[in-house]
Specification:
Oxidized Rhodanese, domain 1, 261 residues, single chain, transferase activity, 10 strands, 10 helices, Thiosulfate_sulfurtransferase, Rhodanese-like_dom, alpha/beta, repeat, 2 domains, five-stranded parallel sheet, Sulfurtransferase
């Protein structure tokens, strides 16, 4: 099952058992602006921690299990996440789920965001009644997350490409040696607020040398923006993806070399 799902797919399954729609915007947006019918609120800041998790900004398995369980999410559920920022915050939830053992085939990003949804679909201001669930979370040691030494080894590896998903100014101010720049927003279609067409995405990725034949190592500053790029590449069928959770925050803290332009 594709990680990227369109609004029509979601609309048909809002009341379906085993599908849990998760809104990761701030609580005031969920309550005051409205949300997808039946969606539960799991704000972005609730599943991020600078010092409690296994790496980077991960929240820790126990804390994440409690958070998702309180929202009524089970590990066997299909999770559909959305935000109002082209999916970048929602993608971070999905990657966090995967890193804690949620089956990838049951993780989905709404293609588009709340603004795009609300133009065509029904919205609600009523929070659903959900029963607390038992969410089993355990950090996956052999998942896509990689450490700093693996990233360093990829610098001179002809079979790998390191991808910096930040803005041009950030990239020019300092990036990991050999990295190519691919601002995550370059993958977004402004009109639909979701991803560009598959053909457009593949053309852009090939132009930057980010091809499926290579191992793609993703980083940004705190592993938020790479989450969106990770989901986009999974959607396109990329298999060998490395997710550098520590990103530039850790790289700089450890005194590793940076290239400036």
């Amino acid at each position: 099952m594709d990680m990227l799902v369109d609004p029509e797919w979601v609309a048909e399954r809002l009341d379906e058992e085993g599908v849990r729609v998760v809104d990761v915007r701030e609580a005031w947006e969920y309550d005051g602006i409205g949300h997808l019918p039946g969606a539960v609120s799991v704000p972005f800041d609730a599943f991020r921690s600078a010092d409690e998790g296994e790496a980077g900004m991960l929240p820790g398995a126990a804390a994440f299990a409690d958070l998702m369980g309180e929202a009524g999410v089970r590990r066997e559920d299909h999770v559909v996440a959305y935000d109002d920022t082209h999916g970048v915050f929602a993608a971070r939830l999905l990657v966090t789920c995967e890193l804690y053992g949620h089956p990838r085939e049951k993780l989905h990003l709404l293609n588009g965001d709340y603004s795009a949804w609300s133009r065509e679909q029904e919205v609600s201001r009523e929070a659903p009644e959900v029963a607390e669930a038992n969410y089993d979370a355990a950090f996956v040691e052999d998942g896509p997350l990689v450490g700093i030494d693996v990233v360093a080894a990829a610098i001179d590896d002809p079979d790998a490409v390191i991808v910096d998903t930040r803005e041009e100014g950030e990239f020019d101010a300092g990036h990991i040696p050999s990295a190519v720049r691919l601002d995550w927003l370059e993958l977004v279609d402004e009109a639909s607020r979701g991803l560009k067409s598959d053909d457009e995405l593949r053309a852009l990725l090939e132009e930057r040398g980010v091809v499926p034949e290579k191992r793609v190592v993703l980083y940004c500053n705190t592993a938020r923006r790479i989450s969106h790029t990770y989901v986009a590449l999974r959607h396109l069928g990329y298999e060998d993806l490395a997710f550098y959770e520590g990103s530039l925050t850790e790289w700089e803290r450890e005194g590793r070399d940076l290239v400036t332009e």
